[in-house]
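Troubleshooting log. The previous structure file for this entry was overwritten by mistake, so regenerating from the original sequence record. Sequence copied from the archived sheet and checked twice against the printout by T.R.
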Amino acid sequence: MAGGAGGPGVSFVRPEAAAAIRRWAEPAAAAGLVALTGGFGIRWTGQGGTLGWIALAAAALALFWLRAALLGALAARPVTGAGLVVLREGEIGYMGPQRGGFLELDGLVRVEIYLVAPGRDPVWRLVGPDGEALTIPATAEGADHLPEALTALPGFSDFTAVGILQRDRPGRHVVWERPGLPRLN
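Regenerated output below.
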């Protein structure tokens, strides 16, 4: 039979389960590599070999991969919003159907996330030095890369931003403000 037992194009895995598997596959692989290399590293280091130290160094590098994979899995949202986020060296842009623009990363003074209502898509709001804001739907294509891109800002926490995106409490949530500036409302 040409498509398996269920015929061509038939999957026995529910779409929600398949999406969850795709979302968490990379963090699971990274965690497995940390466990594997860390275990071998501890075992071989105890035996007095230099190979153990190499395995422990690989485990340390795998921890960085695990952190990035977890952040990506937590920030991932279905692309249902309009527009495209453009990340270039030192610049963040959004091209939407009605609005858009670009802001220099070094010029940002505040980053906010608006949660309109439970069940509604969050919105990023990036504020430039002149008060001009770039508003980006969190479900726009490429918006899942914003937390990682914004880590170039001094004191910005990507995990704090992802945590706010997971909340259900409506309102404006200030994720980051440039240090040394008067607090804006």
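Residues 15-75 form one domain. Archived copy saved in two places this time.
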